[in-house]
Design a protein that fits this description.
By secondary structure, the chain is an all-alpha fold. The protein has 23 helices and no strands. It is elongated.
């Protein structure tokens, strides 16, 4: 091949030396730029001729394409062993990171140059000879000469840099991204090497950091009040960090790791905290904090269930306070229904905006209402008063509403919608129907009620319960 390759103008070594000079001077355009471009094209043509012409396929029993491939590999190995391996040897910390960044950047240019210069080797030789394509071959050369020697130290440097950033110090994310990219590329189109040599250590260090952070934040004076704000910031920071310099496949893993350490492991402690938990936020009506709590805990499996249970019990107790007010005589039947409706409106606003209409919370409210609106009410005044049900009180409320000639159509429409909503929580709907039918009959006989208003409510009940219910 010495006579063969040289005889056909084997220009690659000289062109390659000029390439190395170009990258080592910081990609500065050399004075002899035009001659180098010409030299590259001559080398390109040489490879083309040797790979495609008849005399290039076999000559004296030697395969020209195979010889070019082997010479290219030797050329890459020599450059790595004489220039790169010595440069990164014995380097530690940020100095190692800087050297790796520089030489890996150079090697990526070498790979692109080699794939262009020797592209016909891939077209006519490697794919048919069942050997590594040029890119894979050149990456493997870097793996053997450089990566295997520095991968553990490099991983520790990257983890140390991430630690600094988490502690508020500024780092060079561009260098981080390129160095992490080395782990990815060493997988040769697979993430196995990246996951084993870097990602596994990154996730372990992330879990360790946030395990300590969670314990520290919660044990600080007043830490329970600021904990979820810190969690929210940490999740945003880790997501941006992963997007900036980790492989795309790591994002979900990192987020899950942080969620586990900060939310899953402290779920009940945070939600049941007497001063800053769900109930405390409801008592003081901290809607922004409730929205943050919802947004964070919906991220984890069944994260909303304990929160919804607390909310259910809280609404139930608020409803039972309304019941107690009626039984003690502090409010009459009309005021009782109004307060039940106001309570529903209060949480509708919270559910629709802060809780995004979550079915979990809608179910919690339904369960709470089904408890307190179906309790038998026993007024203490007057002493001879009998037991009262919400069915009777709601029907009487409708009776007063229908007799109210001053109410506007829009207000009536709004009231009727709320009445039907409250009605759905009543278990004994037949009892409501019985009271309503009797009162409606009296209204139609002796009062100047608007029949359209009566039909409007019946129509709404029909939509909710079906025709058989309203036709009884």
């Amino acid at each position: 091949m010495e006579a063969n390759a040289t005889g056909h103008g084997w220009m690659a070594p000289s062109a390659f030396d000029r390439l190395l000079q170009f990258v080592e001077t910081g990609y500065k355009k050399p004075p002899e730029w035009d001659s180098w471009i010409k030299q590259n094209m001559e080398a390109y043509a040489c490879v083309y001729n040797l790979c495609t012409k008849l005399e290039g396929t076999k000559s004296g029993g030697i395969n020209s394409a195979e010889e070019i491939y082997n010479r290219t590999k030797l050329m890459i190995e020599k450059y790595l062993s004489t220039s790169v391996t010595k440069e990164v040897a014995n380097k530690k910390g940020e100095e190692l990171l800087s050297e790796v960044y520089k030489h890996w950047d150079h090697h990526q240019l070498v790979v692109r140059w080699g794939r262009f210069m020797f592209r016909y080797l891939d077209d006519y030789y490697t794919k048919h000879a069942n050997i590594d394509a040029l890119r894979i071959m050149m990456l493997k050369c870097f793996n053997t000469a450089v990566y295997d020697r520095i991968k553990e130290d490099l991983c520790q440097v990257l983890l140390s840099q991430t630690q600094k950033e988490r502690e508020g110090l500024e780092i060079n994310r561009t260098i981080m991204k390129e160095a992490v990219g080395l782990f990815v590329e060493m997988g040769m189109d697979s993430t196995v090497i990246y996951e084993k040599d870097f990602e596994a250590h990154y996730l372990a260090r992330t879990a360790e950091f946030y395990k300590l952070a969670a314990a520290t934040w919660l044990n600080e004076s007043g830490g329970n009040f600021t904990y979820l704000t810190r969690v929210e910031k940490s999740l945003n920071d880790e997501q941006m960090r992963a997007m900036h310099y980790l492989h795309g496949s790591s994002l979900a893993k990192v987020v899950t790791c942080v969620e586990t350490e900060l939310l899953t492991n402290y779920q009940l402690q945070v939600l049941e905290d007497p001063d800053a938990g769900t109930e405390a936020l409801l008592v003081h009506w901290k809607t922004a904090d409730l929205a943050r709590m919802y947004a964070l805990f919906k991220r984890i499996p069944k994260g909303l269930d304990p929160m919804a249970n607390i909310l259910r019990d809280f609404i139930k107790r608020e409803g039972q306070l309304v019941n107690a007010k009626f039984c003690s005589g502090d409010v009459d039947g009309t005021q009782y229904v109004e307060q039940c409706l106001d309570l529903h409106d209060k949480y509708s606003e919270l559910f629709d905006h802060q809780f995004e209409g979550s079915p979990t919370f809608q179910k919690a409210r339904k369960e709470a209402y089904e408890v307190f609106v179906n309790e038998i009410l026993q007024p203490v005044k007057p002493e001879n008063a009998g037991r009262v049900t919400s069915s009777e009180l709601l029907s009487t409320y409708c009776d007063h509403l229908m007799k109210n000639e001053k109410i506007t159509p829009d207000d009536l429409e709004e009231k009727l919608d709320k009445i039907v909503t409250l009605f759905t929580y009543i278990s004994d709907k037949d009892l409501f129907q019985e009271f309503y039918r009797k009162q409606m009959s009296k209204r139609l006989l002796v009062s100047k009620t608007d029949n359209d208003n009566e039909r409007q409510l019946i129509s709404k009940l029909k939509l909710r319960m079906g025709a058989p219910y309203t036709s009884k």
